[in-house]
Amino acid sequence: MNAPGTPLVVLDHVNKHYGDLHVLNxxxxxxxxxxxxxxxxxxxxxxxxxxxxxxxxxxxxxxTISIAGEPxxxxxxxxxxxxxxxxxxFQSFNLFAHKTILQNVTLGxxxxxxxxxxxxxxxxxxxxERVGVQSQADKMPSQLSGxxxxxxxxxxALAMQPSVMLFxxxxxxxxxxxxxxxxxxxxxxxxxxxxxxxxxxxMGFARRAADRVVFMADGRIVEDTTPAEFFxxxxxxxxxxxxxxxxxx
Amino acid sequence: MVIFDNxxxxxxxxxxxxxxxxxxxxxxxxxxxxxxxxxxSPIGSLRATATVYTEILRNTPLVLVFIxxxxxxxxxxxxxxxMFSAVLALTLYTxxxxxxxxxxxxxxxxxxxxxAARSIGMTFGQTVTLVVLPQAIRSVIPPIIxxxxxxxxxxxxxGGFFIFELFNSGRRLVNENGDQVILALVGVAxxxxxxxxxxxxxxxxxxxxxxxxx
Lengths: 249, 214
Hints:
Chain A: Belongs to the ABC transporter superfamily. Chain A: Pfam families: ABC_tran (PF00005). The complex is a heterodimer. Chain A is an alpha/beta fold. Chain A has helices spanning 47-54, 76-84, 101-111, 117-130, 146-158, 176-191, 203-209, 227-232, 237-247; strands at 7-18, 21-32, 36-40, 62-67, 70-71, 86-89, 164-168, 195-199, 212-217, 220-225. Chain A has one domain (6-245): P-loop containing nucleotide triphosphate hydrolases (Rossmann fold, 3-Layer(aba) Sandwich). Chain A has a 6-stranded mixed beta sheet, with helices on both faces. Chain A has a 4-stranded antiparallel beta sheet with strand order 2-1-4-5, with helices on one face. Chain B is an all-alpha fold. Chain B has a single domain, classed as MetI-like (MetI-like fold, Orthogonal Bundle). Chain B has 9 helices and no strands. Classes of the chains: A alpha/beta, B mainly alpha.
């Protein structure tokens, strides 16, 4: 475990281009153990790319990203090992379509962490209970609602006992009535001290659960402050403009 | 009648064709899977090797591959039993077709599945074998069986290279029964159909059984 307050994820002068688009522009960001950082910003601001770069689902052009003091390995077994330590929750859930709910959660512990099947299943059932889908353990992902699938995806990530969790717009693909059940699970995790980086459009969650809000626009970090400060006294014009558009209804 | 008079001969040739088909499939299918995995691997040199191999073999007439195995290899000092050489030639030629069939199935699996697998710490090999291939199977079965049907017919090339399979038996029976040429060839065709039609039905059956919902 990493003691609360020590730097866990550090991005140092990170740049990435998609052709002419400078999607990550000199990003410097330190996330400390136990922190919950919400990344918000308009579409195309680079926030999802930032999130995916942290476990190297996206490569970066230059700069360094390190986790618990170790720079991200480029490929191979070392990268796989690091990813096991970084939980990821996707917008589209991405549950393994050919596995049952229980198998989705046990696959990583059995195959990656080399746990026994019995041990992995006991732990998986605990996690499924914690996210409230224990009764669905033997169903296939397609039989579950979106909100249930996303909660299973969180359990699957937690089963690897990661030291940081990445959430890439976890509620954006959900029907409105299912958003809260996912946010409740995430808020619970935050309360327990999990280090979290959350890309989201859920401003209520950002206000309630975040320690810090990082506001991105055009590939840059424009503001990096507390939720209260950001929502009540945004400093940049870009943030004021963004907030006026999303909070006016 | 030529067909019934020569049933043992047909049967011997039929079994040889079947042996060519099965031995080649057993060797070429795993080789094709490896080539397909190489073509989607994160390592550039593997991708390049697999692509070059696929393009060369897939675009070379099978007869040339046979000539390579039966003529060029012995000149180079590699002397193999005829059956060996025939299976080698068919395997080299067929593996890229299997690879392309598998790759098209892999491309049908949403990329998020592989991302999810990698993000829980699976290696590339685990991602492919535990998550991607099992989901690709259903869409891969029909094209794989198509390749096997084409392979069944391709085994006839071996008949020109000292292997006594169906095509070769047809040649011999035509020579020996000049008055019943058409019947002799109908017999050959019937034995090919004995393989290819059940293969097609197997494809339908498997496709219906292995369903993955999204």
